[in-house]
Amino acid sequence: MVAEGDEITVNLLPTDKKIVTFDTIMVVDGKNSIVGKPNVESVKVDASIVEADLQADKVIAIRYKAKKRVHKVRGHRQRQTKLKITSIK
Fold first, then answer.
1. Domain spans, the chain
2. Residues 6+ apart with CB under 8 A from 87
């Protein structure tokens, strides 16, 4: 759920555009709610890219077997895009 002015982080978007448009699957406006099948056709969400390529926190995977001298450490940082919601229309 997002509102205008929110900043969200999503997986890396491979685009050179500064503004991204998303389809809406559900709209909640106070007590009214509209659920799309599969999308709500009358509503679009526009977002501008704040940071195009940033990295998330490192996730470390450790494999260890006791008494066998097996010890393996792997790390991974997911690439992400930071967006700011500019309009919901």
1. 7-88
2. 4, 45, 46
Q: How far apart are CA 52 and CA 36, in angstroms?
A: 29
CA 37/CA 28 separation, integer angstroms = 15
- Nearest CA to 62 out of 70, 52, 72 is that of 72
Q: How far apart are CA 83 and CA 7, in angstroms?
A: 6
- pLDDT, tens digit, for every residue of 31-51? 999 999 999 998 999 999 999
65: burial class by Cβ within 10 Å (0-12, 13-18, 19+)?
Answer: exposed
AA letter at 21? T
**How far apart are the C-alpha atoms of 54 and 8, rounded to whole Å?**
13
* pLDDT class of 30 with cuts at 50, 70, 90: confident
- Alpha-carbon distance of 43 to 88, in angstroms, equals 7
